[in-house]
Amino acid sequence: MISDSLLYAALGTAFTFAMTTLGACAVFFFKKEPNPLFTKLALGFAAGIMIAASVWSLLIPAIEGAEAAGVLPALPSAGGFILGVCFLILLDNLLPHLHLGSTHPEGPRVHLKRETLLFLAMTIHNIPEGMAVGVACAAAAAAGGGDALPAAAALALGMGIQNIPEGAAVTLPLHSAGNTRRKAFLMGALSGLVEPIAAIAVVLAASNFALVLPWLLSFAAGAMLYVVVEELIPEARLGEHSNAGTLFVMAGFVLMMLLDTSLG
């Protein structure tokens, strides 16, 4: 089972990483920092996809997995969710980073360049996405494929789709900060490498401890929703055209819901 899990996770996160890289290619075609409206729409769209994925691809399977194992569903679903939120809060406090549109770095006070802090923020953001794809692949392998495998594929597809505009939205400011196009591209693309690493880590945990799978599913959901509420939705609502950002949150939610209910 572990070999299947690792294969599924490697394929899924290779796709999401490729989509991040594709989005980062925008730096070779645009000379300036992205229009604030584009950033707002891209982040809102990503938020909608991540919200829907947290519910359909992670929390519902966590509840169903706990019920199948004869465990009270509330314990792993709520417990894992809370642990996922705590994990992201811990990362926020341990790693210095700078969110898009912000002038005040978060985390420990260090003397790092703005582009390095932006890179660290992107990396933190990508960790729960990689975890989500990895744990969905572990669930698919544990179920022997079947209906769980298309569900994992739908999740990877949704994460990959939102990584394209998101990759552009975070890479272009790196070039505007004074980096060469090549360096900005490499930093944007490399931030996506954390997704395969996070996916493999949760696959190994799930494979060695089968009973922890519902906990890991809800853990990934909590981590993703923390990113959405803490970072993506506020940035999608800042300034003018806040209605447009809200509509793109809804559009991302509907797209991921359709992918999950159709493929999964």
Task: Summarize the structure in short.
The protein has 264 residues and is mainly alpha-helical. The chain has helices at 2-24, 36-68, 74-94, 114-142, 148-176, 181-190, 194-208, 213-237, 242-263. The radius of gyration is 18 Å and the shape is globular.
Key features of this structure:
about 260 residues, ZIP family metal transporter, transmembrane helix, ZIP, 9 helices, membrane, zinc, mainly alpha
Helical coverage, percent range: over 70%
Q: Hey, roughly how much beta strand do the residues contain?
A: under 5%
Q: Give helix and strand order, one letter per element, not per position.
A: HHHHHHHHH
How many strands in all? 0
Q: Which structural class is indicated by helix and strand composition?
A: mainly alpha
Indicate the radius of gyration in whole angstroms: 18 Å
What separation lies between the terminal Cα atoms? 20 Å
**Stretches with pLDDT under 50, minimum 5 residues:** none
Overall 3D geometry? globular
Q: Major β-sheet, in short?
A: none
Number of H/I helices: 9
| Mean pLDDT score | 84
Protein name: ZIP family metal transporter
Membrane topology: Multi-pass membrane protein
GO molecular function: zinc ion transmembrane transporter activity
Family: Belongs to the ZIP transporter (TC 2.A.5) family.
